[in-house]
Amino acid sequence: MSSETSAVNRADDTYDVAVIGYGPTGVTAANLLGGTGLRVVVVEREADVFSRARAISTDEEVIRIWQRTGLAERLKLDMLAERPLDFVDARGRTFLTARPAPRGHGHPPQMFLYQPALEQVLREGVGRYPNVEVLLRHECLRLRESADGTGVELTVAGADDSVRRLRARYVIAADGGSSLTRAQLNVGYEGRTYEDRWVVVDTEMLKPWPDHDRLRFRCDPARPAVDCPTPLGHHRWEFPVLPGDDEKHLTTDDAIHAMVSRYGIGRDRIRILRATVYSHHVRFAARFRVGRVFLAGDAAHAMPPWIGQGMAAGVRDAANLCWKLAAVLRGELPESVLDSYETERKPHVREVTRRAVLVGRLITERRLPVARARNGVLRAIRPAKWLTARLVDSNWIPVASYAQGFQARPRTKASGRQIPQPWVTGSDGERVRLDDVLGGRWLLLHLGPSRPQPAWERAGVPALAVLPAGSRPAGNAVVDSDGVLLPWLAEHGVTTLALRPDAYVYAAAPAGARLPPPPAGFAPAPRPAAVSAQ
Questions:
Q1: Angle between helices 310-329 and 24-34 (to 10 degrees)
Q2: CA separation, residue 169 to residues 2, 329, 432, 447 (Å)
Q3: Of residues 173 and 279, which shows the higher confidence score?
């Protein structure tokens, strides 16, 4: 539901979670929390989806997260999948072709998107939940911990000058890189802003051209560029503002047409929708948590766009945090579990950012001798596909595994890793994705006859057997019909897993051994009836 009017001090202005900001991170959080039945309020300054397309791609793990909201298949209808990435020289000759390797999440490894359309679908998804209230054209002016320490009080102003005072047990601040919430909390935003500024150009494709659906990093020392397909009839270019350029002129239609004409794109092929100048940032909030307030997305970190992970990092933040908030609010886990949000997310964000910076250096090299050496070396190894695949994989998106955080001790090779998501055959004989069977709950997954796990059984955690491909479907079991789960278990030397609701391994044990016990304070409550998403 959406609201643009409010009164002061309404009696029902108490929520489980308040989400500040309604971009990709905030709207993902609203969907995830909406499905838990918690009472949620979203505060968003703008009246509608931001019209400028910022993110242009995402990856299979993020689609897997949106799968948990029930929106993945709808979102994929508006995306482009399985498109190669070419690094080309000043003459347009390819010296490196990249195809991101699948990581086993059950969706294409990289998909191109049109962000305004994506956000609209996600917002429509939030509309399924009567327990989520969305306050558009509202801004959080102030927040402070309540006097009794059990919540956060928010002062929210509407566009009609109305003032509303809300109270939430916890707050997710997903209000962007210039986060007012982060400033109010006096949390530093450490890092740097690059001197180079870039023009981002969104266009409507009027007439296709050869290979218009390939992403090209145009590594031209004179003026590097990003030439990117986007779905729904759009195309995207990015160009640096060079010394001596007039930024205002560079965003005009004449200047843009002059730049794209170098690639054979005439005025009859595109219509320029908008052009914006922005800077690249590498920044990290000093803390992701201050009491009951959590920073997420760009409010917590910012990175260059080269491997398309800025939006994805925020979606991962939401996924990591929301199930933990739900568990704490239901009394299933102690509040201390929330400290693992930063412990788990920050190292991965730092590594993603490091790789984005490295890829950016490869693309934007301006020194002619270095660029020639780059082109020659990478062109020479290009025929060795295994070597180029390894080079790309080692510098592309790192797997989100957690060396520290919310997991049992002693650690195993599987600890802190997310189990792959193949298609499996359920007890009814139907092929389904694994997460749809796991159901976003704590679960024991075991190979063969299960060894008794008294501590987990007393806690009421259900168990699911994994049967080899070709087995007959059975109750409380899935058939590994694609032959993915059993090799994964063997590779990690385990036969029994305790999975968290986000499908990460909390604990694992080899054949014949018992799992470490459940976390301290673990008291799973009966699962509430699902909130209607119709």
A1: 30
A2: 21, 8, 36, 40
A3: 173
